[in-house]
Amino acid sequence: MTKEQIEHVRNNPKYQKLVKGRSRFAWTLSIIMLVVYYAFILTIAFDPSALGTRMGDGVMTIGIPIGIAIIIIAFLLTGIYVRRANSEFDALSHQVKEELKDIA
After folding, report:
1. Each residue's pLDDT tens digit, 1-30
2. Which residues, in sequence order, are bridge partners of residue 54?
3. What is this structure's pTM?
């Protein structure tokens, strides 16, 4: 790419929207995951008996389903990102590429 093309892309409002939106969305999902994960870790550290409470008469504690839920949340957040990336972000990226072809 030439310097002119790079500047054209950087100054493109669709590219700026893409970068800003994707970055904000990724940080939001990352913060959600970090809060969930660290809440679990801090609970283990400061109140392990809360997660060690048995469920019913068996040997399973409340911590096991909560740990599984955290793994499921990670997959869900990944799916949410992929869905938005495949629709909104890819469309914007394609539009920027098409506009770049016009100046090439």
Report:
1. 778 878 888 888 888 999 999 999 999 999
2. 61
3. 0.81
